Amino acid sequence: MNSTSHEPMLDRREVVRRLIAASPDALVVTGLGSAAYDVFAAGDRPENFYLWGAMGGAAAIGLGLALAQPSRSVLVVTGDGEQLMGIGALATIGAQQPDNLSIVVLDNGHFAETGMQASHTRLGTNLIEVARACGIRRCEAVISLEAVDRLGELANAREGCLFARVPIAADEVPRVLPPRDGTFLKNRLRELLKLSPF
Amino acid sequence: MTDNTTAPTAWQQQIFDILKRGGVRQVAYVPDAGHAHVIRLVHADPEMRAIVLTTEEEGVATCCGAWLGGERSVLLMQSSGVGNCINMMSLIQNCRFPFLTLITMRGEFAEFNPWQVPMSRATQPVLDAMGLTVMRVERQEDVADVVQAGLDAAFESSEPIAVLLSQRLIGRKKWVAKP
After folding, report:
1. CA–CA distance, A79 with A35 (Å, rounded to integer)
2. What integer best gives the mean pLDDT of chain A?
3. Among all residues of chain B, which has the CA nearest to that of A72?
4. Which CATH number fits domain A12-192: 2.60.120.10, 3.40.1180.10, 3.30.565.10, 3.40.50.970?
5. What is the pLDDT of residue B5?
6. Listing from the earlier edge strand, what are the strands of the sheet with B160-165?
7. Which residues on B lie below 8 Å from A183 (Cβ)?
């Protein structure tokens, strides 16, 4: 992770657990892989929409959902690799700025799912600067668990489109696998919102 | 340069009217001259949200997100953008999302630019391969009927629909050399 090699590396499971605890009503969209496992490990809930594919799509799904549900907090939890694949979506979000959308990138500087190859965030890309340059109003570097709590509170408050990068340790944590049936996940979330099953 | 200032055709207005009447709230797009009138009207409509994309696959994702949250949406793009969407379209199939995209065709009729041709030829095979139902419009008088049918199939029976607006229908792109 460029320019920040001395920053503390937080425990990803603890980060996500505290984040969701501080924004308990948020609709959560996860990127595929470790971010999905982290959110599931924090406790399965119908508000969670886990991706198992569609890499690069998490933030854009969050955008469509946030625009459709302005009275709900929408929290995208994803990894650096997934966000890098959907990096253009940050510009698209910068152009829309829904107050209720927060994007949290868990950045370990690696593609953890495929053998821990270094990602671009380790090789020079600073996602905070990218998000800021895309015009996203609030861009936060979150480097302590206390700051994670505040981040969750901000997401809960829906007072402005938010992007945050959280440096996490690049260690492998046990996989805990959320449901893989996309139709089930979609209908479960829609039912929570009192929408018909389709 | 192409001339984008010509008056909109009746079918372009019909497309907007069908989307509006059909309750479409989010309109994601990578622009094309054939969609320009609809895009302009969406920007002017306080009940609709125009979402300009950096790449078409983002629009597949925003449309699925919109439906998760209970809103109807549409993706406007040209045929060259279909290839960008392939993997993202797995969302549609895996989650059985209703989905509607209107695609202006390039590279198939009196095309000036050969770089449009390969993706033009691949457009329908790609959409078929990703499980979308493809409806093609050749004549102006059929636009309203087919777009309405596509919208109904998408949102009333949760089908993934791609409506191809043929290049012959849209008209030859007017290329005028700069003086």
Report:
1. 6
2. 95
3. B69
4. 3.40.50.970
5. 55
6. B49-52, B24-29, B72-78, B99-104, B160-165, B133-137
7. 94-96
For residue B63, list chain A residues with Cβ-Cβ distance below 8 A. 64
pLDDT tens, B51-63?
Answer: 999 999 999 999 9
Give the C-alpha separation, B134 to A164, whole Å. 40
* ipTM associated with this complex: 0.96
| Cross-strand bridge partners of residue B137 | B165
* 97-156 in chain B: CB under 8 A from chain A: 97-98
What does the domain layout of chain A look like in residue ranges? 12-192
Contact B26 A66 (CB under 8 A): no
The owner of tokens 């990703």 is B130
Asked if A56 and B53 come within 8 Å (Cβ–Cβ), the reply is: no
pTM for the whole structure: 0.95
- CA of B66 vs chain A CAs: smallest distance (Å): 4
Assign domain B10-170 one CATH number from 3.30.470.10, 2.130.10.120, 3.40.50.970, 1.10.10.10.
Answer: 3.40.50.970
Q: Which of A100-104, B7-11, B43-47, B149-153 has the lowest mean pLDDT?
A: B7-11
CB–CB of B88 and A190 under 8 A?
no
Q: B61: which 2 tokens? A: 């994702």
